[in-house]
Amino acid sequence: MASRTLQQQVRAREMDYERQQAQKLKEKKEKKRQKLVDRLNELWREEQEARIEALAEECAIALRCIGQSHAAAALFVQKQEALKMDRHRQAVLNQHRESSRFKTALQKERVRRKLESDPLMVAKRRKNVKDSAAQWERSLGRYLSHKAKFRLLSRGFSGGVPGGWLAEHKEDLSLLQPSDYKHTFLHSRLFMNTDDGNCSSKDKEMDAWKAAEVQRQLVNSYRNMQMQIRNVMDKRKFLRGQLAGSQLMIEKKVQLLEHENLAFEKVEKEVRKNISHHQDSETMSKAHPQCMK
Q: Going by C-beta distance under 8 Å and a sequence separation of 6 or more, which residues neighbour residue 176?
């Protein structure tokens, strides 16, 4: 009996020692598992923080692009409104000009018809025509007379004779100047290139050149405006595409993070379930050591 009790005591001590060793091993494994879980949680948090920062940066870039797109759209709308107002103002001005021109032409036509129907004005107009014709004939006579005198004068110079017409009319030097027909119709036609004539062709050419230059500037400005509008529309299209791409990337990354969170939660549940099951088994072994034995 004594030997049996001694064996039982030894067996009990061995079982206690084994139980202590198993408990230490279990605690060691639990510490390692807890350390692994903490490390995994720390790595996951760091990765999540980095991803959140990247997503925040991408969101900021996308919002900045949206703001620039809205600013460009507002500028385009403002320019369109200004252009519309300018066109409306120009249309009103053209309409006013056309109306004033029509009224002036109508008034002139009424005056012309009234003058044509008035016998006194008809007689006066005929008298003016006759006076103009007589004045033109007198101017032509003065011109021909001066031309004949100039020919005689040139003959006197070319002959080398000290006498002649120049010797007889030394004091009358005004005959050598075209002052007799200076302000007549023939003078304005015959001396177009002189200072005395009224040369209006250059002014007309200058006005035509200015009109062509203004037209060219208008065409260039219209082309530049169309080019700017096209550039703004292309830029808006590019920004919209970039925004859609960034939104799609953000949605994909959010879905990926959600899947990863679900997977991590699933793994964590399984780990907790295993730990709880192991703890239950240990409690059962402690409560019923003979059954476990």
A: 150, 153
Find the domain containing 40 and state its range: 1-78+215-285
The answer to whether residue 141 sits within a structural domain is: no
Is 73 a domain residue?
A: yes
In this structure, what are the phi and psi dihedrals at residue 98, rounded to the nearest 5 degrees?
Answer: -65, -40
Q: What angle, rounded to 10 degrees, do the helices at 2-117 and 201-287 form?
A: 160
Q: Would residue 248 count as lying in a domain? A: yes
pTM of the entire predicted model: 0.25
Cα 275 to Cα 28, 29, 31, 278, 279, distances in angstroms:
14, 11, 12, 5, 6
Mean pLDDT by 10 residues, the chain (293 residues): 73 84 89 90 91 88 82 84 89 86 83 77 78 78 68 51 46 44 42 44 61 77 83 84 82 84 82 75 65 47
